[in-house]
Amino acid sequence: MEPKTKQEIRIVELSSKLPKLTEKQLKYPEDNLFRTWGSFSRNRVHCLECGHSWKEDSPTWHNEIVEPICPTCSSKLKMFKYNSTLFQEMNYFAILTKKENYQVVRMIASYKYMRKNQPPTYFSCEVMQHWIDENGEVRSLAKFTQTMGARGCYDLWIHNSRMEIKPKRFVYDNKYKLNPYKIYPERNIHPLIKRNGFKGHFYDIAPQIFFSYLLKDSTTEFLLKTKQTNVLGFHLSDSSYKVNGYLDSIRICIKNGYIIKDFVTWKDYVDLLKYFNKDLRNAKYTCPDNLVNAHDRLIKKKRSIQRKQKLSEMKAEIEKSQKKYESEKRPFLGLEFKDKEITVKVISTVAEFMEEGDNLSHCVFTNEYYNRQESLILSAKIGNNNIETIEISLSSFTIKQSRGKKNKATRYNKRIIKLVNQNMDQIRLIIKQQEKLEKRKKTINHSNTKI
Q: How many Å apart are CA 113 and CA 85, to the nearest integer?
């Protein structure tokens, strides 16, 4: 879009005055952004770093657990799983600089192109700039992207396009949320950001998001300065795990030097404390020596209370909750994803929530996850055995958590997350279909009202 306001015009003007990428900056990705790759075909290992190839009679390393080492350049090779004539890897790095009263995050897309029997070539291009003012407001400039690209890709950049100012709503775009793999070591940081507690660490948070909230959100500054960085990560994520409702208990933890290392488990534990009417301002409760054991003890206690209820009352409660759950989640019931071994399926009844919680010893039933309107709960199984429970945000279409027995990730965790993310478009499609259906109903009702 064309710049219209004074601020937009000024940002575009300042952007044109930023220095071009130096030779040193363009060389940075070669040694810092990419892995050393290899490929395998016809019993020959091809090093894609130096071009050397050698015969391998028994490629036991082709299993991902073991990686070969090139005898010529001594590179430890990560093997491509497919055979091709051209291989490519892409990563981002960010350059942090300051221009007038703006903190600027310059996003550089870098590519590594590899062929067998040839050394790799590299290409880098600046694709985005995030301009953050002293109040934390962000305005971005970005190059154009291909609209007809691979499914799920949103950063297929058109490198020879111009960089244009984006509207304010760009902060909700997936491109805005891109987190660079590396930050260029030579940095120029705004004094206000340093004043608010920034010491050089990003805690796996995208710098444009981190800086923006650090300048405009007192909770972010508070959590950073008190070293509650795990809580900070959830506070700035897309999930609904916002911490403002737990700040009083967090302050008690800080006062007693207690660092919350697993905010999701600690949050569920505090919810259980509320259920039992415990004093949330008492360090005896909010700062357990063993969080997992304390969490599991309260779950067991709450489950015991629930089980002591009359069977008819439990049945009536489940039946009542089931009607509400089925009404809200009907479009998703029956949805499942599979790979060769794992099946991930939407939990279809409230009774299954209780069974899931019993089998995996976590609080998916006791904390009434079936009542969370903005979440979709799925169960991952191998055969008839429950492996992990997955919670998906229906607003951001991200995985909030995937937990196995006693809230711990299993050895299948990465596979389960990958399987769900690969099929997230099915959930998006259901949401869109429901929105269209609701819109059609409103139109029909409106027409009937007029008649």
A: 11
Cβ 116 vs Cβ 142: under 8 Å = no
Q: Kindly write down the DSSP assignment for every residue of 78-127, as one continuous string.
A: EEPSS--S-EEEEEEEEEEEEETTEEEEEEEEEEEEE-TTS--EEEEEEE
Q: Where are the alpha helices (DSSP H) in 330-411?
A: 350-360
Q: Which amino acid is at 153?
A: C
CA distance 366 to 26: 54
Sign, Cα dihedral of 259, 387, 342, 64: positive
- Contact between residue 71 and residue 52 where contact means Cβ atoms under 8 Å apart: yes
Domains and CATH numbers, the chain: 6-183 (no CATH), 217-305 (no CATH), 314-430 (3.40.630)
For 58, other C-beta atoms within 10 Å of its C-beta total 7
What's the chain's average pLDDT? 88
Helix (H, G, I), strand (E, B) or coil at 381: strand
Q: Report the alpha-carbon distance of residue 281 to residue 288 in Å, rounded.
A: 13
pLDDT in tens, 77-128: 888 877 788 899 999 999 999 999 999 999 999 999 999 888 999 999 999 9
Letter string b/e over residues 236-265, b meaning 16 or more CB atoms within 10 A of that residue's CB: bbebebebeebeebbebbbeeebebeebbb
Confidence of residue 221 (pLDDT cuts 50, 70, 90): very high
Hunting for tokens 């209780």 — which residue is that?
354
Residues 9-29 pLDDT 10s: 999 999 999 999 999 999 999
Which token pair is 300?
Answer: 């067991």
End-to-end CA distance of the chain: 43
If you ran DSSP here, which 8-state letter would residue 163 be given?
A: P
Taking the whole predicted model, whether its pTM rises above 0.70 is answered as no
Half-sphere exposure (Cβ direction) of 82: Cα atoms closer than 13 Å = 5
Q: What is the pLDDT of residues 53-64, one digit of tens each?
A: 888 765 554 444
